[in-house]
Design goal:
11% strand; Rossmann fold; binds NADP nicotinamide-adenine-dinucleotide phosphate; globular
Length: 286
């Protein structure tokens, strides 16, 4: 189904993807072998280490590029080996320090294996961007398919918990740990409840919209549980970006949405936690 107004999304069901074993690039393997954990971790002490899930395309890819442009070492998490390697190659061609990490967010073992790899290589994580998501199509509640609802929540909500929990021990070792959950304005109950507004006029959604509302709730719960640890956890609305997610019907480039993500990913230690932000840090109502 297609949304027609600015700020809306057009959704599509992604294909089922095969599961791969954990891999690391030849370059990274060489660096690990040459340096050992301590040596590399020591040399990386002043470099931000950032992981982006679903980094192989769309907003995740642009986020990886923009984080790398700040000087960060970017770990590009993606579930498909070919798409992962192609994305890493494209970013490296620009001079970015980007490394592939196999990561299917729906698989807790995959998240744990990815965290073990990052731990062994860098010893910590500074920035986690939970970007990976699926739409499940725009499915009305009446006659909705519970299997699709479960699949969407498994990626967009439980997947965020899988990855965040696996990487929390590494985030706790960072001097400036940040978690950014890529949400959506459709996940705002306030916006949805405005029945005369552009999003409130849309038909009900059984899966994607509730999953983003749940992600917002999860963001607040993590911020609450991690209060006092220095780990700042925020949700971001990237806006309506032209990506595969909406058959490129979005009204602005993915890079514009990524800028919102990077803003929260690089916020200072006095920055917010448990918030929901859009362009230029504008607060999105829950
Ligand atoms: N585009 C918009 O207008 C818009 C608006 C508001 C919010 N958002 C949010 O922005 C984020 C990125 O969306 P996008 O527009 O960039 O979509 P996209 O181009 O379809 O990218 C989605 C990414 O998520 C990955 N992914 C899906 N399931 C995964 C899994 N189980 N494990 C690992 N990776 C998985 C995909 O990998 P594969 O290539 O392997 O499928 C892909 O890299 C999502 O959270 C979305 O909800 C987008």
């Amino acid at each position: 189904m297609q949304f027609l107004r600015d700020g809306d999304e057009v959704l599509q069901v992604p294909p089922v993807q095969p599961i791969h074993t954990l891999t690391v690039s030849v370059r990274t393997r060489f660096v690990i072998a040459a340096s050992g954990r301590r040596g590399l971790a020591g040399r990386m002490a002043n470099t931000t280490i950032a992981l982006v899930t679903g980094g192989n395309k769309g907003i995740g890819f642009e986020t990886a590029a923009q984080l790398a442009a700040t000087g960060a070492t970017v770990l590009l998490g993606a579930r498909d080996r070919v798409r992962r390697e192609e994305a890493v190659a494209a970013l490296r061609a620009t001079g970015a320090d980007v490394h592939p990490v196999e990561l299917d967010v729906t698989d807790p073992a995959s998240a744990v294996a990815a965290a073990a790899l990052v731990d062994a290589t860098y010893g910590r994580l500074d920035v986690l961007v939970n970007n990976a998501a699926v739409s499940g199509g725009w499915m009305p509640l009446t006659g909705s398919d519970p299997a699709v609802v479960r699949a969407v929540f498994d990626t967009n909500v439980v997947g965020v918990m899988n990855v965040t929990n696996a990487f929390l021990p590494l985030l706790r070792r960072s001097a400036a740990p940040r978690v950014v959950n890529v949400s959506s304005s459709v996940g705002s109950l306030h916006v949805q409840r405005d029945f005369r507004g552009p999003l409130g006029q849309l038909p009900g959604s059984a899966a994607y919209v509730p999953s983003k509302a749940a992600l917002n709730a999860l963001t607040v719960q993590y911020a609450k549980e991690l209060r006092g640890t220095g780990i700042l956890v925020n949700a971001v609305d990237p806006g309506y970006c032209a990506t595969d997610f909406n058959n490129h019907a979005g009204t602005r480039p993915a890079a514009a949405g990524a800028a919102n993500v990077v803003r929260l990913a690089t916020v200072g230690n006095d920055g917010p936690t448990g918030g929901f932000y859009a362009d230029d840090g504008a607060v999105v109502p829950w």
